[in-house]
User: Fold F-box only protein 39 from Bactrocera dorsalis.
Amino acid sequence: MAALTISRRREVMQKAGWKIDQNDEACYIDIDEPEEEELAENDNYSEWHTLPDILLEEIFSYLTYRERYYASLVCKQWYNAFYLPLVWRNFLVDDRTLTRAKYNYYSGWQYCLDHIRTQNCLSRVGKYLRGLEFRPEHSFNNIFQFMTMLSWSMDKGSEAKAPKDLKNVGSRIRSLVYVFPCNMSQANDPEGIKLFGTGGQLLKGLKELLSKLRNLRTLKLIDFVLERFEAKHLLDEVLEACCTKMRVLNLVNVTTTHCPIMHVGLFINLQILTISPQNIDDDALLLLADTKLKHLHLLQNRYTSTHLSISPCSVKAWRQLKRDNPRLKVHLRVESMGDGEVVFQPEAPVCSVTYESPKSKIKTDFVLRMVDHYKNKLSVYGYEMLPRFTSPKPFHNRIDSLMLLIARQCFNLHTLFVREKVSTSTVLLIARTAK
Assistant:
């Protein structure tokens, strides 16, 4: 009788288990045995397990890493979908990625990188990664340790007698995005911005990782705010590793002061370049004239210095650029919460001027200068986001005449954003004029 009782208890224990919740805490789950009638009703399963791989890839790409793991336990088809290449085309690394809670007597509970979990992750899906995106908020040590472990795994995987689980780790990575939170202490105070740049060991770890990525096509380094001596050597390893393979390069606010980045003109097959106006000069433009560059975006955001403190490139350099690379299109853009203004580039082949700034107003003097210099090339002009100011009611104080001037003079214009108050007649005239 006692043996029968023990066997029944074992059967019950086998139908229960432990599960890790969102806070990395274990909870015991007891599974109730369904009745025979319920089992008969549940025999008709849905057909989710028969979905084609192309749909499963798309579905799995929207799930978090934890949700992907739980979904892979459903059936064999979903388990195989967990390892499909497109599921891991972009790997986001933030403060909580592959971490565990650890108590610190000084700071309390903190999330630290779990090295065993990270190593298992890289050994299983590292060869499928096609894109890396680093978005730290406060814990830069976790990002640094992850980059160090990834670099070490790529080194070991490239050896002649490499472990089987580390072979080809990171070999398919084609893009890398790193957004630095340089306004950590004043995140909710846009008027009192304090900049904190990266550098030191964190920059060294990033450069070491970039030197291992030989097939990189897209690189975006945003808001690094480096010193001049660090910025001048930022792309040394990238240029050596993928000089002919780079297609898209995004360098926003490498420095806040004037510091030209000459490396941008040495990627001979570069097609799209996004850079801040303080990091480009006449010499860089002359180098870009000999490349296959198609789009040059001059971007200013909330951390960029004011347009009054930034000197534009010379007219001579822009004319030589247009002569040597006539297909190049220049795009001017401002992304700021304040009243920002673009750095005017005279004689540049500007095709678009856009603002993502709720407090910026259309200024008459800039519109006249823009029409005078860019009327032959300009195709897009406007302000995004809803305005945070009141438009004047009198007609002579509104922007109606300026909008009509742009529509009449810029004959290549095909997109015009109007967010301020205009009359219905003005809209009809714009629709008739700008065809």
User: Anything to note?
Assistant: Residues 1-6, 8-13 have pLDDT under 50 and may be disordered. The CA atoms of residues 368 and 386 lie 24 Å apart.
